[in-house]
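Narrative of accomplishments. A recurring question from our advisory board has been how the design workflow behaves on a single, concrete structure rather than in aggregate. To address it, we present the structure tokens for one chain from the evaluation set, followed by the sequence designed for it. No filtering or post-editing was applied between the two.
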């Protein structure tokens, strides 16, 4: 069956996918409840003093900067049921936007108009990506990831320097992980965007101090860097290098020599991949490479942080890069292997575990390292004449 015949049914497939999801979803949305219930405490300087009781594992604290609490205040004003519905709808729209932004870059790279075919591809891939583990966990937990990543992605590829920089800076002010996006501005020599991102981030910090100086001081000078405060570093849901190494060695490696060695390998692979992407003029590849690097070296990269796999798969498929690697990624994120490993691990707090569980717990970081290693071979450089013309 040709792609065009399949794409004819893309709107129907998306509707069916959304319907099945709505009927089977976990509407507990525990992380959203943390945002919704604890954010107002920023107005009384108690944002990091009060936790939300959660008997399954541990009391959940508010872990983001004070500026994030300010952003969540309008949501906190809604009844809980309304807040859940609004957040789910917003997250699903952002999922489509994430897909759409990646496909638009691919169409531009191929010098094709973003026409009906590309729009239907966006609908079809949104329906498929809905069943990726990072997406499902983000929606089930009511996490901020889809909203944050869609906004960060749009900002990174914005043509106006101020918009790009401010967007990334504000995203980093909400949750620190988008700050790695500044590396993209540096390697592409978008110096003004890099400066604007610093300014945007500084504005968010200043607003936090203006509203709650006590909470801001505590966050930036006491709580920042306490990775274990947001959850168990060694749990399999942490798919960073630190998490994978800790499970393999049986203790939290922190920033000791095993992590430093793995980080050095990541830096080298990222450098070669980024150099190839810049030479090829491939914006989408460069964005993905930077974000994979950030996921690898961050102390905590929960499996639901790995939403950047979606544009990666689209790049591999529609950029005609490597269908085998794309298929492996799809199997990894659609097989729910992380959830299976979560159920099999001794406990979220116990780092040592049987070696098969430790080995399988490398699934995302191992694939990310492989992807970075293969990327230079997958990229076609811009012809010399074209580089001279630009």
């Amino acid at each position: 069956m040709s792609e065009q015949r399949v794409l004819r049914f893309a709107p129907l497939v998306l509707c069916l996918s959304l319907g099945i999801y709505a009927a089977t979803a976990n509407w507990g949305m525990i992380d959203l409840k943390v945002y919704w219930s604890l954010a107002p405490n920023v107005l009384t300087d108690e944002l990091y003093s009060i936790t939300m009781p959660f008997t399954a594992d541990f009391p959940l604290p508010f872990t983001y900067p004070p500026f994030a609490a300010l952003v969540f205040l309008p949501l906190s004003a809604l009844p809980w049921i309304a807040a859940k519905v609004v957040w789910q709808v917003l997250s699903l729209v952002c999922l489509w936007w994430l897909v759409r932004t990646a496909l638009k870059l691919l169409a531009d790279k191929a010098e094709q108009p973003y026409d009906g075919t590309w729009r239907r591809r966006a609908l079809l891939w949104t329906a498929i990506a809905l069943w990726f583990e990072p997406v499902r966990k983000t929606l089930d937990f009511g996490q901020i990831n889809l909203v944050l990543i869609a906004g960060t992605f749009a900002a990174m590829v914005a043509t106006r320097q101020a918009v790009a920089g401010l967007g990334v800076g504000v995203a980093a002010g909400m949750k620190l992980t988008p700050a790695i996006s500044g590396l993209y501005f540096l390697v592409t020599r978008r110096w003004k965007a890099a400066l604007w991102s610093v300014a945007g981030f500084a504005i968010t910090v200043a607003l936090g101090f203006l509203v709650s100086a006590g909470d801001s001081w505590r966050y930036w000078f006491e709580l920042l860097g306490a990775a274990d405060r947001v959850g168990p570093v060694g749990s399999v849901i942490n798919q960073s290098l630190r998490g994978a190494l800790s499970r393999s060695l049986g203790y939290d490696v922190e920033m000791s020599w095993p992590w430093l060695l793995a980080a050095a390998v990541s830096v080298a692979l990222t450098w070669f991949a980024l150099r190839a992407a810049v030479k090829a003029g491939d914006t989408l590849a460069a964005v993905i490479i930077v974000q994979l690097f950030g996921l690898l070296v961050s102390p905590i990269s929960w499996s639901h942080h790995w939403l950047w796999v979606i544009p990666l798969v689209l790049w591999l498929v529609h950029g005609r890069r490597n269908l085998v690697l794309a298929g492996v990624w799809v199997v990894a994120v659609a097989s729910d292997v992380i959830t299976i490993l979560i159920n099999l691990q001794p406990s979220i707090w116990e780092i040592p575990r049987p070696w098969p569980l430790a080995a399988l717990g490398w699934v995302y970081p191992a694939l990310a390292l492989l992807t970075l290693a293969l990327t230079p071979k997958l990229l076609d450089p811009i012809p010399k004449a074209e580089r001279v013309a630009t």
